[in-house]
Amino acid sequence: MPLVSWSGFLALIFFFLILDLGVFNKNPHRISAREALAWTAVWVVLSLLFSVAIYFGYENHFEGLGVKSGLDGKTAAIEYLTAYIIEKALSLDNIFVMAVIFTYMKVPDELQHRVLYWGILGALVMRGIMILAGLALIRRFDWLLYVFGAILIVSGLKMLKNKDDDPHVGESAILRLTKRYLPVSPTLHGQAFVIREKGKLLFTPLFVTLVLIETTDVVFALDSVPAVFSVTTDSYVVFTSNVLAILGLRSLYFALAAIIGKFKYLQQALVLVLLFVGSKMLLADFIHVPPPISLAVIGGLIGGGVLVSWWRARP
Description:
Elements: H1 3-24, H2 33-59, H3 73-105, H4 109-140, H5 144-161, H6 173-181, E1 194-197, E2 200-203, H7 205-229, H8 235-247, H9 249-256, H10 266-282, H11 291-312
Antiparallel strand pairs: 1-2
Helix pairs in contact: 2-3, 2-8, 2-9, 3-7, 3-8, 3-9, 3-11, 4-7, 4-8, 5-7, 5-10, 6-7, 10-11
């Protein structure tokens, strides 16, 4: 276990999280598009710079990085960037669902950042568990890669079939169960997730919103994590690419929430990405797709979806 590499990365992430909530967003406020774009740029630049660290770490096999997986610096960096782009692209659908949840739960703009902060912190823990469990299972039962490939193809076809369906938050089983088994306050109480009223502990609607956000991320992770396994099974590359993509999701939400619906052809592009990576996993024994080709195909599909959406939306 490369302890310095893992602990150094986790320390860097927690430093940015503390800086985010404890310094820059200590007081609740509405996140402007300009502020959101600035933070999005910070996370994207940080993620791209980390690919340089990946390159040198694996090229020199720092603490044994890449020895077991047989990755050199160039291959590891390409796999990291490909996994990062896949995770980032698939999270765009998550942004739309988040916007629907916040609207349904009537969460004010100035409180949404707090929900997303703790939601994404919880998502990091859940993703870590899912990634480590998935990799352990794959190493013991390599045929699971075919199962994951089939899941991705089914998910892609399902997404294509339901492309025009909006999520019905009010019909969510999680929402019904939360309200049935937890004492929930009828109104918001500022930033509080839990309050004490007349000696009784009550969960606020902000906590219920957090539960819905966390559940949504787990559902989306069932697609995105197996998709990353189609690129690499190196635990450090999988984990770091996922974490950095998720950390930028919060700022990306505030930057894109109002306009995400205008990217009408992006979902079709995501369908093609899922079908591509799923087919790649199923046909791995017969067709080897080099990492640079995978990166080019996935980047081309997503970029194409954005460009076509922009082109068709022109007046």
